[in-house]
Amino acid sequence: MPARQKKLIFCTAGLLSLACALGAAAAVGTQLWVRGSVLCSTGALLVNASGPELHKFIGDIQYGLFSGQRVRQCGLGGRPFQFSFFPDLLRIIPASIHVSVILFCTVLIVFALVAAGFFMLNAFGNPYETLHGPVGLYLWSFISCSCGCLIMILFSSEVKIHHLSEKIANFKEGTFTFKTHSEQFANSFWTILVCSLVHFLNALLIRFAGFEFPFSKSKDSGTITGAVDLMY
Asked: I need a surface site. Which of 48, 75, 99, 134 has the fewest CB within 10 A?
């Protein structure tokens, strides 16, 4: 493949990696990982609420990796409550999983930046070591993609298997009991999925840059070869 096309491919991959790093960094700091609603089951049972009356007992909840907000509603109007995972909720959440998610987010951001740097180095410089060549590019892309997948798996298990939303809703609640009414992953979680897919795409771009196509051969190569053959 001509050098100009390889530069274009590596520049594209580098910019995609940089965008992923910035997107993941922005996602880590937001509260848009999970959105849902919680039902005050105790209050609903006390008044035997059903139908339209049930909406008076349904509050909202949203949170990220560091903080969040819930709206407590038990028939007397909503009361918002801000919370932080560190150190407020550290006793009730699966702390090892939560810290692992944050750690892998950090690794994803760092290696996405490293991948972007090496893509640009290969685009505008001459690779002279293995880590500057295709093997290194595959390595950085694979690490970033793997970290993204691990983040989604660990955070999904924390939310769904360990019932994270329900634990947060019942934090410091002695009288009322809340149950998860609905929950869905929000924009920041899907940003990590997009980052993983982009790094997988970058691996395909690296492979694509290594192909040699017939149109990439120089037009003068046949003429030069023929002239050499005539000399002998």
From this structure: 48
pLDDT of residue 219: 45
Dist. CA 218–CA 61, nearest whole Å = 62
How distant, in Å, are the alpha carbons of 54, 158, 172, 180 from that of 176?
15, 23, 10, 13
Q: What are the Cα distances from residue 207, in Å, to 106, 120, 134, 197?
A: 27, 16, 8, 16
Residue 163 β-bridge partners: none
Rounded to 5 degrees, φ, ψ at 113 are: -65, -40
Query: What class is the 3-209 domain?
Result: mainly alpha
CB-based contacts of 85-91 (< 8 A; 24+ apart in sequence): 88/171, 89/167, 89/168, 89/171
Whole-model pTM: value is 0.82
Indicate the domain borders of the chain: 3-209
